[in-house]
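Record minuted for completeness.

…
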Amino acid sequence: MPTTLNEQQETIRKFRSIANFPTIIGAIDCFHIRVKKVNADGGQLYINRKGFSSVNVQVVCDADLKIMDIVTRWCGSVHDYRIFRECRLKQRFEAGAFSGILLGDSGYPCTPYLFTPLLNPTHHKKKDIIGAISVPGTQWKEVCLEILKQQKKTIVACAVLHNMAIDMREDVFSGERDSIEQYSSEPIVQRYIAPSIRGNIRRRQFIETHFQ
């Protein structure tokens, strides 16, 4: 994650250049990486809502789709919000370490530092906001890999290679469509998480300030 004020401002500037959405410092989402069936004790915890074994991986990406933060330690049955609730990144946001906010989907509660889509927008500007929030999630389809050993280290290594490829201006999504068609099933739908009162107020103020 960007640490200095200059780095944070540059990240925010790049996000704003995409959809004129201010103060965004990252887009957060989780995706499932298929693993071989775990037969050891606790193996059932790896079975997600679609019925296959996976690791639920949380990533935060910047406007260039580089992965700034990654969490790989959770089994497939764990909800996205629990992963965020117990990660160090949430603690850093609550401590005021960042000047911007995250964008996530409705699998997260709306908080003062993590905005989620409005479910029933009544204003065309609000509909534009939903579109901007939804874009990052489209990049993270289910990625299915058969990983036998040290799977979590392998996932992190793939994230590092992904960032290196972006720095080298390689087409990191070439062949992505074929992989999705070959391996992935329907997306795993997270249950809706109700926003917090403070998050609702902060989001409404944000919309009135920047999009009225």
